[in-house]
Specification:
Tetracycline Repressor, domain 2; DNA-binding; Tet_transcr_reg_TetR-rel_C_sf; oxidoreductase activity, acting on the CH-CH group of donors; eight-stranded mixed β-sheet; alpha+beta; HTH-type_TetR-like_transc_reg; Butyryl-CoA Dehydrogenase, subunit A, domain 2; 22 helices; transcription regulation; 580 residues; single chain; 8 strands
């Protein structure tokens, strides 16, 4: 019997058919990543508005095959609903308002938007930065801004090409919007200072859209994983049993989203329910992807390109509603409300404190680095803001600036901390006396694999690489700092190269280039960051077995136990001769 994944009750069959037709098109086909296309424009511009369950079902269908288009639809849905609420359903809604880009919604932990606004005569000065999701190229930007001198929120629809608006990265379906400009009253949506409720509802819709995207990736990952299961076994394999547990979690996440969609249609408060739906869907997606990647590592029927496409889609979707940690913080605040502020008098802050080279980090620095590592790995470097990291900690951006001068400085510090933890663990093993080099190499590989699992977020940042994220974005002073941290990475790699050389010289490994041999060693273990996800009930013994398996695997490769026959002929791919 094959599992089926029904849509929520009452979803329009006509829209499901349109969504599937668009999903079958390649990502660069007509419609691209723009909801101005006739196929989707009516879904956001309909009067009365389309039911939330229908919009969420379409987003789910598009999320894996057309991730950018699913983000565009999420942005258009959130913006159109906010414009209706603030400007009135009878207001003229041209293409600009029906397909606006959405930015600046409520940060769950702080309860305040990322932008501030203050009156300058008859104009308004808006400043701040926040993640955004795009509905259409050149569409206006929907921004909710907090009044600096009053507990009020206003909404603005800003022209995308206005001086003072910068979006990074350029040409993408999401990223970070940087705003510093003055606008006239015609850019206001509704009355000044009256948009707080609309902002919260918009933020809840973003979470529901992100949950639908996560569910769509989960279903696609399940389909790929199920196709890799062996068909001729007498009893269900361990992989099938793990997939069954993942499928149960996925079904629960979809049921919760269906309930949230019905609550949205009824006009109920979605603040906590939307966070629960997103947390549930996100965890189910990560679990299903991990199961699919694990099956792929042992299956000849795996499709690596399709799995990589799902990982990219999941990464892209993180911009829709922010990190999982932010949603958890919102729920945690409802479960255990924060204590009232303590009496002023406080612990003095550390100004631009360097990361200690050894020993324990100060508590606040460690907390900032932990939150930053989680944020940088749950979404792109560009989409992550210091506000989000502060929200996850329940502190202001200024508290982070007390320790780190910029986002680049903080990213570099996270990378440095990952290397320092690795060096502190592995270097003593590399320098052990009286132990064969090949045995030390095994223990080093084992220790590195354990570090990956123990400090997963940090190791994912380390695998991303500094140069790929920061090159071209930093000044000379920051470049010098970057070079210092890169030297740590080189030192760590040299530990392995030196022990490899010793093992080769001692005849414990065949003759080979030790520096070249270190590359696949790191590649095999670091790839764990792509598929490993702690499972419920996982024990230290489980991690020990996995680390031992990885260390044995890389050492077996270095022994070069398999050698192709001297007369073996390898057929070249068709057409290769013409390309030479």
């Amino acid at each position: 019997m094959t599992l089926t994944w029904p849509s929520a009750p009452g979803v329009s069959a006509r829209w499901l058919a349109r969504a599937r037709r668009l999903a079958a098109l390649p990502e660069d086909a007509e419609a691209g990543a723009c909801v101005a296309h006739d196929e989707l424009a009516a879904l956001c511009a309909a009067q009365p508005p389309s039911p939330p369950s229908t919009v969420l079902a379409v987003i789910e269908i598009l999320s894996a095959p057309r991730p950018a288009l699913s983000m565009a639809l999420a942005a258009a849905w959130c913006a159109a609903a906010a414009v209706d609420e603030l400007a009135g359903a009878r207001a003229r809604r041209g293409p600009g308002t029906a397909s606006a880009n959405a930015a600046g919604t409520l940060h769950p932990a702080s309860g305040r938007p990322a932008f501030t606004v203050r009156a300058e005569g008859k104009s308004w000065r808006i400043q701040g930065e926040a993640p955004w999701i795009g509905a259409a190229p050149g569409a206006p930007l929907l921004v909710f801004a907090h009044h600096a001198d009053a507990a009020a929120v206003s909404a603005f629809l800003l022209p995308a090409d206005a001086p003072g608006i910068e979006s990074t990265p350029a040409g993408q379906a999401g990223g970070t919007a940087h705003v510093d400009l003055s606008v006239g009253p015609e850019r206001l949506l509704g009355a000044p200072g009256q948009a707080a409720d609309a902002m919260r509802r918009t933020d809840a819709r973003r979470r529901l859209a992100a949950a639908a995207q996560a569910n769509g990736v989960t279903l696609a990952a399940y389909a790929q994983a199920a196709a890799m299961l062996p068909a001729d076994e007498a009893a269900p394999s361990r992989g099938a049993q793990e997939l069954a547990a993942c499928a149960s979690a996925a079904a629960a996440a979809r049921a919760l989203l269906h309930e949230a969609g019905a609550a949205a249609h009824a006009g109920q408060n979605l603040r906590l329910l939307s966070a629960m739906a997103l947390l549930s869907a996100g965890e189910a997606a990560e679990r299903m992807l991990a199961a699919a990647l694990k099956l792929a590592s042992a299956s000849a029927r795996a499709d690596p390109d399709a799995l990589q496409a799902l990982l990219r889609a999941r990464h892209l979707h993180q911009a829709t509603a922010g990190t999982q940690a932010a949603q958890a913080a919102l729920l945690a605040g409802a479960i255990q409300p924060p204590a009232p502020p303590s009496t002023p008098g406080a612990t003095p802050a550390m100004h631009n404190a360097p990361i200690p080279r050894s020993g324990e980090l100060p508590d606040r620095v460690a907390e900032i680095l932990d939150a930053a590592a989680d944020a940088f790995t749950q979404q792109t470097y560009d989409a992550t803001t210091l506000d989000q990291i502060g929200d996850a900690l329940g502190v202001t951006k200024g508290s982070i600036y007390h320790h780190y001068r910029s986002k680049a400085h903080l990213f570099t510090a996270v990378y440095q901390r990952a290397l320092e933890m690795n060096i502190a663990t592995v270097e003593p093993i590399a320098r052990q006396s009286g132990v064969r080099a090949i045995d030390r190499l095994y223990r080093m590989a084992y220790a590195h694999a354990m570090q990956v699992m123990k400090h997963l977020s940090y190791q994912r940042v380390a695998v991303q690489g500094l140069e790929s994220q920061l090159m071209g974005r930093i000044n000379e002073e920051q470049r010098a700092r970057l070079d210092e941290v890169i030297s740590l990475r080189d030192h760590y790699e040299e530990l392995f190269v030196n022990v490899l050389t010793q093992a080769i010289d001692a005849g414990e490994l065949p003759r080979q280039n030790p520096r070249l041999a270190a590359k696949p060693l790191f590649g095999a273990i670091n790839w764990t960051t792509m598929w490993y996800q702690p499972r419920p009930g996982e024990t230290a013994a489980d991690r020990d077995r996995l680390a031992a398996h990885l260390a044995t695997f890389v050492l077996s490769g270095l022994t070069q136990a398999y050698q192709p026959a001297a007369d073996m002929q390898i057929d070249a791919p068709a057409g290769a001769a013409h390309r030479q």
